[in-house]
């Protein structure tokens, strides 16, 4: 099938620089995606955008180039609950990738088990309205209870303003809960203001809640962008991510977010994005926890 990209779509950055920051041995890129390729794994009719293709081979070439050892491939919304492209990436990774799926209530036990065997360890619940249609909470709870039996966790994606109304639901989830991109704070607001304090309280009071301190390129308002050799990119995001890394060093994850779905204003150089890490995890110990120990404990517990 031939797909036309959404008008204005930005393709991922070709030929990223070599990071100056050398990630520790065994580092995990714990948030990234594959798109299609559409000719092999068609994008679903209910998608909100049509991306460029971003294949497993391209993802794994990036992994090697950046110095990472493993990936966690998160189902992108353009594939809906059709997990074939993500699962295909896992089974062709030589055990170096695990995954997070999107499932519906109708998913069968055998299908869940097959995904588990392929390396899936979580499901993603998305509350960002521009990306997905609404799913009733009772359906999500039912899914959470089922996947909990497999030892999986729930990944949640939402925007900071929506945390108050989602609080009761999130805190009732029976699994480990991983928040994408720190719950998308508005970084023009103070890092110690009420909005981000609520997120910190969410993590402080609920020890099952983890956070990805990823996506400065999405959250930043003032930049500068990770382009043209910039070694100090997205400075306005640093206080937020650094605070989460230092307050909850054992419950944070980092990922490139490659191929950066829906970024509208620029595409970062992924090498420079890796150079962001030492600004938010400033000691070798924090870096090792963020990039190796924590993702290994969550995704490869049998090896950690
Ligand atoms: O699955 C996606 O479509 C998706 C989109 C976005 C975003 O548009 O913010 O971010 C993500 O991490 C993943």
Automatic annotation (TrEMBL):
Residue runs in coiled coils: none
InterPro entries documented for this protein: Amidohydro-rel, Aro_Compnd_Degr_Hydrolases, GLI/LigI, Metal_Hydrolase
UniProt cross-references to SUPFAM superfamilies, sorted A to Z: Metallo-dependent hydrolases
Domain of life: Bacteria
Domain Amidohydrolase-related: 28-299
Name under which the protein is recorded: Amidohydrolase family protein
